[in-house]
Amino acid sequence: MKAKLQKIMDDALARINASEQMETLNEIKVSFLGKKGELTSVLKSMKDVAPEDRPMVGQLVNDARNVIESKLEEKRAKFEKAALELKLQNETIDVTLPAKKPMVGHRHPNTKVLEEVKKIFVGMGYEVVEGPEVEYDYYNFEALNIPANHPAKDEQDTFYINSNILLRTQTSGVQVHEMEKGKLPIRMIAPGRVFRSDEVDATHSPSFHQIEGLVIDKNVTFADLKGTLEQFAMELFGPETKVKFRPHHFQFTEPSAEVDVSCFKCGGKGCRFCKGEGWIEILGCGMVHPNVLKMSGIDPEEYSGFAFGVGLERIALLKYEIDDMRLLYENDYRFLKQF
Predict the structure, then answer these.
(1) Which residue, 45, 66, 195, 199, is most buried by CB atoms nearer than 10 A?
(2) CA separation (Å) from 177 to 194, 225, 292?
(3) Which segment of 199-203, 253-257, 291-295 scores lowest on mean pLDDT?
(4) H-helix or E-strand containing 269?
(5) Orientation angle between helical segments 109-123 and 222-237, nearest 10 degrees
(6) How much is the pLDDT for 135?
(7) Spatial strand order in the sheet of 253-262
(8) For residue 9, which of 24, 31, 26, 27 has the smallest C-alpha distance?
């Protein structure tokens, strides 16, 4: 029996030493120490051993079990150590390497331009105000000297909610809200989203942004308007920028004008950007019509003022030399990451 136990132990130790992976150790353990293992079989045959020899045989079996278990544990520890060393080797981090630069978001071109415009006018003493995007017909048209059935209404394709409520086509209605408050003088700009039923193309969108400007005070003249817009253009496009006023007609201002700036790309010499003309149109403006002042409760004999409106997207397209307005809305990361 002693020889048999010695052979079982030698076989187990030989297999353990020859094993090359953790799974093999589990198989060896089951083979020798499991319920149907070789050492367990010896214990089951103890009934065939003489009673006086059973203690000795039992001790030999326990000694063999302890030796096999100890060797299994020793081999298992080696495998675990080797696995850990391999993992550390494969997952080594060189702390001296430069870190990966995280991807962060940034401001949209429209937002950057809007913040720049706000900064310019706030520096001139203007207040930034807001108004409703869902507006009454009165504020969007009638209070701006555009009564019902007036041809000027047809020039703006309007989204009507009902006969009296619409999505505003311009931010000019905000000036009426401010004038009705009766707090004079007024120096304000009103940036916001506007809506028109336009086909989407490189220069048009059914939803875009305008910035309305308004000044109401005593003795305000067209010269004040010119000086304000000249200063705005130079701060926005550069100190060498020149401004040209062309007569125009707007229903809510009289006299009215459209404003061109000298091309900041070619300096007015003519290029592809300004279509060879040397000038680029940027906004419309004029002196507030007396009827608009009256309807808002302001005496046109005592007060006067000027207003102007500029498209935010138009400035962004010009400032960043973008050819297609749709790029501002398509959320193409390849385009937006340039700014």
Answers:
(1) 195
(2) 16, 21, 12
(3) 199-203
(4) none
(5) 130
(6) 95
(7) 127-128, 186-195, 207-217, 304-311, 279-288, 253-262, 243-250
(8) 31
